[in-house]
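Q&A log
Question type: sequence-to-structure
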Amino acid sequence: MPELSYCAGQVRDFDNDRFLATLFAGETLREDLFALYAFNLELSKIRETVSEPMIGRMRLQFWRDALPGIAAGNPPAHAVATPLAEIAARGRLPESALRTLIDARETDLDDEPPRNLAAIEAYAEQTSSALIAAAVTILGHDPAAHAELIRAAGIASALVGLVRAIPFQASTGRVTLPADLCVRAGLDPSMAHQWPQNPDVSAITGPLLQSAEQHLALARSKTGALPRSAIPAFLPFSLAALYLGGLKKVGGDPALYLARPPGVQRHLTVLWRAMRGRP
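Response status: OK
Response body:
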């Protein structure tokens, strides 16, 4: 097996769902998707790797300043910027979507939790949905032709991912859950490090999963006109549907769900959905 590129290795290790999905893209486009997802990882890890918000904003500004050079084929010396410039040379760099991803990550540097579910969904649209739109562009399709599907799939995936991440977030002392739902559950989102070891989060996960299920249904209703070559951009959404089903079986408790990881189901789900041509 050939050695993985830097971007592919990053995605394999830190975003394995998208790594699996990308394996079903055409061989010539896989590295482009890996570069996109590695770029997303660069942004997503900023909050957890800086000592103060100002440093995080400087890193985001680095990427804002780099985009024109990347688009012009003159990228900064960076293991992710260089392959992005190669995408630009082929005329498939989704620059506006990348800028949306950068701007949205400013929210990560705020200490205030999102106010409500609507705020979470707006953030998901600017991150998860924008990432799907960028992948669709790289795969050679117009995301505007699938706007409703992209929005719904991105929000559903992000909400499910947020629920799955609750145990990890609580352990870090910082949660990004809707403040109003946390209050309803008797938990203070600004004091996650003081949450009980096994808190009852059903009052939080219930509305999040219900919204995810609604967006899932909407997305699935819009997949009929999706070209088969665009499917890899949406296969992570198929895995979100798998996780949603598993979370519902344990009453929405992410701690219980993490104790029963889906294992081989992930691979079979991606394979089956790719073969069917319906995410």
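Response note: The chain has a mean pLDDT of 93.
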